[in-house]
């Protein structure tokens, strides 16, 4: 799964969900300018218990990943059945957002024929659709966005049925 904490530092070493201890900045344990505050990114809160196989939750999954899995299992159980071949794209994120574009990433899941990124302004009713990308692609760029505007984004897996990801809310830069 795509836990960013496995590849970057998220602050002081800490026991899950406890108050961080003071540390000396710019040391290997605490390289961030203010790593000891009580504010944590959701990617830094990880599940350290046993996996919950029926829900697809594994030890080391981030809070954001677990929330997406729970929402998908509740809202679209057919596309998230462990035996299904067509499954919802997982862990949709927007790691790069500019005033007029947004990079959307996701994790492959199941065996769809292709993926399509759909988006709309938060106040709109109709979705726009990017051209489909291959079933091995895990990112796409949305272009021609309006600066300083909220958008809803989802990824659709195309196969014998249609399986949507969760919907995320992004805001373009000013």
Task: Give an account of the 3D structure.
The protein has 174 residues and is mostly beta strands. The protein folds into two domains: 25-75, no CATH class; 79-171, Immunoglobulins (Immunoglobulin-like), CATH 2.60.40.10. It has one helix and nine strands, in the order H-E-E-E-E-E-E-E-E-E. Strands 3, 4, 5, 7, 8 and 9 form a six-stranded antiparallel sheet that branches. Strands 1-2-6 form a three-stranded antiparallel sheet. A hairpin with a 4-residue loop joins strand 1 and strand 2. The longest helix is centred in the middle third of the chain and has 13 residues, at 63-75.
Features:
174 residues, mainly beta, Immunoglobulin-like, 2 domains, 6-stranded antiparallel β-sheet, 1 helix, globular, disordered N terminus
């Amino acid at each position: 799964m795509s836990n960013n904490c496995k590849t970057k530092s998220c602050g002081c070493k800490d026991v899950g969900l406890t108050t961080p201890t003071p540390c000396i900045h710019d040391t290997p344990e605490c390289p961030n300018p203010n790593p000891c505050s009580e504010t944590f990114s959701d990617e830094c809160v990880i599940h350290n218990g046993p996996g919950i196989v029926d829900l697809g939750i594994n030890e080391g999954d981030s809070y954001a990943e677990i929330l997406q899995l729970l929402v998908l299992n509740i809202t679209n159980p057919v596309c998230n059945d462990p035996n299904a071949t067509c499954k919802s794209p997982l862990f949709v994120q927007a790691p790069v957002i500019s005033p007029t574009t947004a990079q959307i990433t996701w994790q492959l899941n199941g065996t769809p024929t292709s993926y399509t990124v759909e988006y709309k302004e938060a106040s709109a009713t109709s979705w726009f659709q990017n051209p489909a990308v291959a079933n091995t692609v895990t990112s796409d760029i949305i272009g021609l966005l309006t600066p300083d505007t909220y958008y809803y984004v989802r990824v659709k897996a195309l196969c014998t049925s249609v399986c949507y990801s969760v919907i995320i809310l992004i805001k373009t830069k000013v």
